[in-house]
Design goal:
Length: 380
């Protein structure tokens, strides 16, 4: 920048030295200020990629959030990958919390992390529908690559013949390569078929049926993601599931009871049987046209491959422990809304026509409404 400004100023020096220059003072004013501007721009420091990916628009969402930049910017964070994609900027940030973890950031909002507490549900979105399915799944669809952890968890099962991964943003595919230690490099598995396409478009035009449909999730608050929580999306998923197939989806707890209930209500219009499971304060929705019941013998048989048990061990669990947890905490949603809380209007849905979530979620964020929170400790 400085070199550019000096390069532009040098040709004018002879003109400024001429005593009888024909150029008037006013004629020189505009270019002089323009060149001064270029010079000042050249003095400006280069953009800090760590700050650029903080996502201030997300950090200041709450009316109680103060000093968003200082709270969310990390002195230890290192941006090891960044790319301006077709749908948003994608980055991989290392050591944001000072524990050597990797975070996947999309449009300034982190969407996946290798911290154990933040990735357990990503593994479960692959493992649980595989273990809960009444029949052995042979085909699966993953909507959204994310960090690739859900896809990698699915591919640990040798019973699967084919997995279709649908990802809209090519830059996310490039970023997932940094998570190989956790996702087992799914793109190198010959059973994986990558589709650079919108998830709903893929399901709407596919002529196939699948035994399992799951996702490596993105928050419905993120631009364009709420349509993956709509009635029409659930209908498309249901239409492409085999009779005993299972649909699985993450529901963020950082939304209000009203929003969470609208998601479950919408899914209930497309599926006969709905269940929710809470793990580490993350909610997973399971849906099917047939009842879902954990079966210990099925769990053991399906997870007998060493690749499966090894992956489960990375998040501190086993087939037996998962079975025990699901027997206790897999909650059937017969009366949709009753278990997620009051305050929901009868029949409230999220559809393509009313885009309810897109209007409701900013309200949820601003008022910090969360339908699933740890109880606050009382001050003594």
């Amino acid at each position: 920048g400085i070199a550019l400004a000096l390069g532009l100023l040098l040709p004018l020096l002879p003109l400024l030295k001429k005593k009888r220059a024909s150029l008037s003072r006013s004629a020189l004013t505009v270019p002089a200020f323009a060149l001064l501007g270029c010079f000042l721009v050249g003095l400006a420091p280069s953009a800090d990629p760590g700050i650029m990916h903080v996502g201030v628009h997300a950090a200041i969402r709450s009316k109680r959030t103060k000093n968003a930049m200082s709270r969310y910017a990390s002195k230890t964070a290192e941006v090891i990958f960044t790319k301006d994609g077709l749908n948003g900027t994608v980055a991989v940030v290392k050591n944001r919390h000072g524990r050597g973890e990797l975070d996947l950031v999309f449009a300034g909002k982190w969407v996946a992390s290798t911290l154990k507490s933040s990735r357990t549900h990503l593994h479960y979105l692959g493992h649980l529908p595989m273990l809960l399915s009444p029949k052995t799944p042979q085909s699966a669809v993953v909507v959204g690559m994310g960090a690739g952890i859900t896809t990698g968890a699915l591919l640990t099962y040798p019973q699967l013949d084919r997995v279709d991964l649908v990802e809209l943003e090519p830059a996310v595919v490039l970023a997932a390569d940094y998570f190989k230690e956790f996702n087992h490099a799914p793109l190198s598995d010959p059973r994986l078929h990558l589709n650079i396409e919108d998830g709903r478009t893929f399901l709407s035009f596919s002529q196939k049926e699948f035994d399992l449909i799951t996702s490596d999730p993105i928050h419905p608050w993120v631009k364009g993601a709420a349509n993956l929580y709509s009635l029409q999306y659930y209908q498309a998923a249901a239409a492409h599931l085999s009779r005993e197939g299972i649909f699985a989806q993450w529901i963020p707890s950082s939304i209000s009871k009203v929003s969470a209930d609208a998601i479950v209500r919408s899914a209930a219009q497309a599926f006969d049987h709905l269940y929710t499971y809470v793990s580490n304060y993350e909610v997973i929705l399971f849906a099917s046209q047939t009842p879902i019941e954990p079966n210990l013998e099925v769990f053991k048989k399906r997870a007998e491959a060493l690749s499966v048990t090894d992956d489960l061990r990375t998040v501190g669990t086993s087939p037996e422990r998962l079975y025990s947890s699901l027997k206790k905490h897999l909650r059937r949603q017969d009366n949709v809304g009753r278990n997620l809380g009051p305050g929901v209007k009868p029949g409230q849905l999220n559809t393509d026509d009313n885009v309810f979530l897109e209007h409701r979620l900013p309200w949820d964020y601003f008022f910090d409404e969360n339908f699933l929170l740890r109880p606050k400790k009382k001050k003594m």
